[in-house]
Amino acid sequence: MSTGTGMASLTRQWTTWVPVVAVIALVFAWGRDLPAFAVVVVSLCLAGAVMAAVHHAEVIAHKVGEPFGSLVLAVAVTVIEVALIVTLMADGGSKYSSLARDTVFAAVMITCNGIVGLSLLVGAVRSGVAVFNPEGSGTLLACVATLATLTLVLPTFTTTKPGPEFTGPQLAFAAVASLCVYGLFVAVQTIRHRDYFLPVTQEGEIQDPDEHAEPPTKNAALASLGLLLIALIAVVGNAKAVSPTIERGVESAGLPHAVVGVIIALLVLAPETLAAVRAARRERVQTSINLGFGSAMASIGLTIPAIALATIWLSGPLTMGLDATHMVLLALTVMVGVLTVVPGRATLVQGGVHLAIFAAFVFFAVSP
Question: Does the structure show a pLDDT above 80 at 281?
């Protein structure tokens, strides 16, 4: 297929114009109090942008191969998520003092239990046993556990500053440590031990990343990269646009304010969730795990350094430490995760257990 034909085919697809329409809807909705009809329209645009983001992420993944494709989607979503957090904190002051903590923890629970659990369940239903690489998956989980403990657990126990907060030097250390761990992992994932993060067959052999279809042209891949960024901006921006309506609904229902963060995190992580499930249906569970654990690591490794820089000009407290209930859920997630990844094979039980932990997180967010 020629470059011109590939581009013409790309422009005919709905995944080309839906992100643009979603961004236009975002422009008209930004900063306004939306009526019910407008909320419905923006929500439809949000759903369309999610589907388009998944499509373009898969095009890029096919072009560059694994694990680079999973890395592109995880980092792109996280960068825009960081921008959303900083914007809300700058506008809301002390009202959003715990927003970074709530968002990062919600992302960890959604990715490590929701995405991973659903992917294992889909993979096991399709093949009987979901197969993945324990070396790569174990490395991902170890990094997530370390980063989550350094940034979300330690602030509850430090004594220099009262409350679950870091001092300036402590926050700087956590930020530098997060960047170093994340950078080291990316180097190992993409260069030194890339084969640890490639999908494997039922017999444990590495799958050929390019075995099933001709990769897209360079121009088509670049176009998908641009449209992926547009779609992700639309996802996060439209999620923010409808968040006041969600917040009013949560408050009128008498639910905790943290529920808003959970809902927004679910919307923002929808592209990764759909991409992970589609990979599991193709018996590429390792790709799903890369997306799940990798997104959790990117959320911590990029968000905390960005928040640390933002505190230079942001006023008000920055609550980072988890409460007792969330620390129990985090510890349970890490323990179950270790038991899941060590064998390199998972059945319906492991998928169901991770989803049960995710359900517990959502339930106790609603009813603390």
Answer: yes
